[in-house]
Amino acid sequence: MKTMALDTALYLQFFIGLIAILNPFGLLPVFIGLTSHQSQIERAQTNATAMITVFLTLIIVLLVGQALLKMFGISIASFRIAGGGMLILIALSMLKGQMSDVRRNEDEVNESVTRESIAVVPLAIPLIAGPGAMTTAIVYSAEYPKWQHLVGFGCGIAAAALICWLVFRAAPLLSNFLGHTGINIITRIMGLIMMAMAVEFMSQGLKDIFPVLQS
């Protein structure tokens, strides 16, 4: 019973951290802007396609993350430090109410204008399921590789994708209700959570590399 409670807490931690990184509320203006030329039906289709892509991308990363680290000879400790550093960069931009260039660049945004569908690129990748979300999936899968944990993390990914879908589904209403200030406040809160995750990743990685720090 105690182990089950610990596992539930782990999956909840993963889910909350993932929601903070995906930050669907902060991406509301971006989603509305990218789909402004679409009808209501087309916008719903774009939303569904994007969330399916996000789910599949993160599930694949979750399943092959540990194998990728082994392939390149990267220890989980080193990846924790590197991933934590990247999350800090994203978190800092979120605390300023901005969108980090780590998640997107102008070329990707400009290129999307010429495409019929923006659901996969740049909306799903890299705006939603960007480097931060992928890093989180890899870290947790490498740290807890048992299939029971992978199933739990997979459920967390599914729940996070569902919440993103619901938020974007109600994008016009939520955007009008929250306003620019409300979205910025939520973005900063999510950035603070992400910053805490990044510090935790890096501190654990440093302790693994330098065991003396654990004393």
Automatic annotation (TrEMBL):
<keyword id="KW-0812">Transmembrane</keyword>
<feature type="transmembrane region" description="Helical">
    <location>
        <begin position="46"/>
        <end position="65"/>
    </location>
</feature>
<keyword id="KW-1003">Cell membrane</keyword>
<keyword id="KW-0472">Membrane</keyword>
<feature type="transmembrane region" description="Helical">
    <location>
        <begin position="177"/>
        <end position="199"/>
    </location>
</feature>
<dbReference type="Pfam" id="PF01914">
    <property type="entry name" value="MarC"/>
</dbReference>
<dbReference type="GO" id="GO:0005886">
    <property type="term" value="C:plasma membrane"/>
</dbReference>
<protein>
    <recommendedName>
        <fullName>UPF0056 membrane protein</fullName>
    </recommendedName>
</protein>
<comment type="similarity">
    <text>Belongs to the UPF0056 (MarC) family.</text>
</comment>
<dbReference type="InterPro" id="IPR002771">
    <property type="entry name" value="Multi_antbiot-R_MarC"/>
</dbReference>
<feature type="transmembrane region" description="Helical">
    <location>
        <begin position="12"/>
        <end position="34"/>
    </location>
</feature>
<keyword id="KW-1133">Transmembrane helix</keyword>
<feature type="transmembrane region" description="Helical">
    <location>
        <begin position="71"/>
        <end position="95"/>
    </location>
</feature>
<feature type="transmembrane region" description="Helical">
    <location>
        <begin position="150"/>
        <end position="171"/>
    </location>
</feature>
